Amino acid sequence: MIKILAACGAGVNSSHQIANAITEEMKKRGHKDIKVDALMVKDVNSEVLGKYDIYTPISKTDTYGVDIPVVEAGPILYRIPAMAQPVFDKVEAEIKKLK
């Protein structure tokens, strides 16, 4: 199981939209063994990040020295395929590296 963390400022709306979009797109691409959680950026720290394989914040944030792939996922929120596609491609590339 590959665990992905989506994070935004409030942890209420944007991170959940990102998490849902990544989950749906990766399932379409055949990656059913993923779990995407959503969280508020202020609650992200090294202990939290240490539990995940990929971090997908809405914008660039600190990774607290944890060495996991970071894919900035903000463009997903525009709901424009040409903007979201590169994000999904990067997430999928990281998933493939982990398998």
Automatic annotation (TrEMBL):
One of its GO terms (molecular function) is protein-N(PI)-phosphohistidine-sugar phosphotransferase activity. It comes from the Bacteria. Keywords: Transferase. Residues 3-56 form the Phosphotransferase system EIIB component type 2/3 domain. InterPro entries: PTS_EIIB-like_sf, PTS_EIIB_2/3. One of its GO terms (biological process) is phosphoenolpyruvate-dependent sugar phosphotransferase system. It holds the Pfam family PTS_IIB. This is PTS system IIB component, Gat family.
